[in-house]
Amino acid sequence: xxxxxxxxxxxxxxxxxxxxxxxxxxxxxxxxxxxxxxxxxxxxxxxxxxxxxxxxxxxxxxxxxxxxxxxxxxxxxxxxxxxxxxxxxxxxxxxxxxxxxxxxxxxxxxxxxxxxxxxxxxxxxxxxxxxxxxxxxxxxxxxxxxxxxxxxxxxxxxxxxxxxxxxx
Length: 168
Known about the structure:
The chain is mainly alpha-helical. The chain has 2 domains: 1-94, RNA polymerase sigma factor, region 2, helix turn helix motif (Rna Polymerase Sigma Factor, Chain: A, Orthogonal Bundle); 96-162, Winged helix-like DNA-binding domain superfamily/Winged helix DNA-binding domain (Arc Repressor Mutant, subunit A), CATH 1.10.10.10. The protein contains 8 helices and 2 strands. A two-stranded antiparallel ribbon has the order 1-2. Helix 2 (14-25) packs parallel to helix 4. The relative contact order is 0.07. The model has no long low-confidence stretch (mean pLDDT 83).
């Protein structure tokens, strides 16, 4: 499938993707964002599409995976640990995400990520964006074990550089 044919097929699916995204998000703006991200990832990973297979199913699977990864991140980020003897996990609604304190924290973490060596930073950022280990390995042309190792090392370096943000 040529790039032109791929782009045409992807654009032809846009209205179906928006409808499918709305079923997940139940919000028009979020559905548009999910559709846009899906189309972007489909284009980026167009070389993984096997010609003469179900293109629509392939793109819808990308959307479903993006939504699931975003949902997991959202739930994980809003879970707090109660350090009482019973150790409850509490899911809190997200609070002022753009508060000055949160913006400063995000800036400090982003700065530390930027200081990582490229060999660790690139796999870490791709994993953070929701890419699977295999996708990262293929993109960077390195073994999966190396990807996992570099992500682990990046996490360790960030924990060393950001001790104030560790859960004790």
